[in-house]
Write a structure and sequence with these properties.
Elements (H helix, E strand, L loop, with lengths): L1 H28 L9 H36 L1
Length: about 80
């Protein structure tokens, strides 16, 4: 029972990392500039993208800490 719970937890932690990285790639691939965009809009778009990236990176750092704690618990 405990081994199954540990296996599922490890899988969830790893899936979170994978999905977060996929989100970062998707955000990076977004075309936030158009030919008709004014500079102020381009700046807002850059700021929004940066905020999203920073938030996801913060979640990834927290998840890395959880993975480290999990690995220590398994020992």
């Amino acid at each position: 029972m405990l081994n199954e719970m540990l296996r599922r937890m490890e899988k969830r932690l790893n899936e979170f990392t994978e999905h977060s990285l996929q989100h970062l790639e998707a955000i990076d691939a977004l075309n936030i500039y158009t030919d008709n965009s004014i500079e102020e809009q381009n700046q807002r778009n850059r700021e929004r993208r940066k905020t999203l990236v920073d938030s996801i990176q913060e979640l990834l750092r927290a998840n890395d800490k959880n993975i480290l704690r999990f690995e220590q618990y398994k020992k």
